[in-house]
Amino acid sequence: MTATMTDAPPPAAPKADDAARPAGRSLSRILMVVGGALLLVAVVRLITGADQLTSEGQVSAALGLAVPIGLAGLAGLWSERAGVVNIGLEGMMILGTFGAGWIGWQSSPWLGLVCGIGFGVIGGLVHAVATVTFGVDHIVSGVALNLLALGATQYLAKIFFAEGPAAEAGGNPKQSPPVESLGDVTVPGLSDALHSVEQHHWFLISDIAGILGGMVTDVSVVTILAVLLFVGSWWVLWRTSFGLRLRSCGENPVAAESLGVNVYRYKYAAVAVSGGLAGLGGAFLALVTSHTYLEGQTGGRGYIGLAAMIFGNWRPGGLAMGAGLFGYSDALQLRNGGVTVHALLLLLVVLLAALAGWKLYRKAFWQGAISAVMAVAVLAWYLLTDEVPSDFVGATPYVVTLLVLSLSAQRLRMPKADGMRYRKGQGK
């Protein structure tokens, strides 16, 4: 009987939208959304004259800001696809920043990168022990891990960075000594050609050139690694038997166990990978963004990564779009301030008007009316002002995130057993 259960085929894919939907349909939908967004931004740039909307520098900055958020979201995706809610992503990122800064300045940034991943894995295993083995509530465990990681790194920073060689090299209780750069990659020839096309400010053509130029100019090697991890995660989770078994643990662990799947093992593996990815996101902040460990440098990116994961409906493609959106809006307000953010108001008017038309077509009259009123109000704001106040500019990425989540909330479907307590033997 045991041999039969062990050798049984993996459980059938759950009949959920994300499992039954053809991959081609999902890809075509993403390409349509990206193409439509690009065309709309190009029109707004042409009308407002805000050339920074699609400039090479803007895209490059957005990419750098999106990577740690995307890695945090990808970490959450691995964990929650196995049925473990991971609110502790922020704490795992904090551990990654400290590990990268601690080892990076003493040896090499590459060892610092590995150490950051390792510290994140440790945080993930702590979360797995609490939630999987002892059945602690997932939210409680994640919050406790965040507090533990923050307190532990603050304490360790005072021990390792406040005196001795570290202090002489520029360290203090709140930061590590500087770490060497990991290096950037620029595609020779192509980068200059795209920059030249961008300077002509042709409609759509220059916009595409600016976006592509930002993706091939001064790109961090960790950014390239992050892209590969997104593709690899999609392949492993949706194209291998390992991924099928792992996702079955997040949909119906009792049925998975009845077919011979070691649910505990898959949950531990998923949460460990989740911790490593979050640690890599923290290491990116320490080694690429600032070249040093800084207390509080994660800035809530673990929570924002969770929001991006939810926006992406627990799938890598949508998650990448959500992380890119937040990174883009954050880079826009950091680089260009109120004048360029003001141009986004016109884009918001178009989106709200389209939403109002769609809701009215679906006979959701109250929602359509509210969207139409908001569109008129934002249009009046755009026409009567020349610049967005500085107080509002800083909140731009958070407002964009909340708006997008509110608009996409109706189509979301989390794994059915996500966050549920599971005890070994329930499927026997």
Strand content: under 5%
Number of helices: 19
> Overall mean pLDDT score?
86
Q: Low-confidence segments, ≥5 residues, pLDDT <50?
A: 1-20
Biggest sheet record? 2 strands, antiparallel
CA-based shape: globular
Note the gap between the termini. Answer: 11 Å
Helical amount: over 70%
Structural class: mainly alpha
> What string gives the helices and strands in order?
HHHHHHHHEHHEHHHHHHHHH
- Number of extended strands: 2
Radius of gyration: 23 Å
How would you write the strand order of the largest sheet?
A: 1-2
Provide structural commentary.
- The protein is mainly α and 428 residues long.
- 72% of the residues lie in helices and 1% in strands.
- It is built from 19 helices and 2 strands.
- It has a two-stranded antiparallel ribbon with strand order 1-2.
- Helix 5 runs parallel beside helix 7 and helix 16 crosses helix 19.
- The longest helix has 46 residues.
- It is globular, with a radius of gyration of 23 Å.
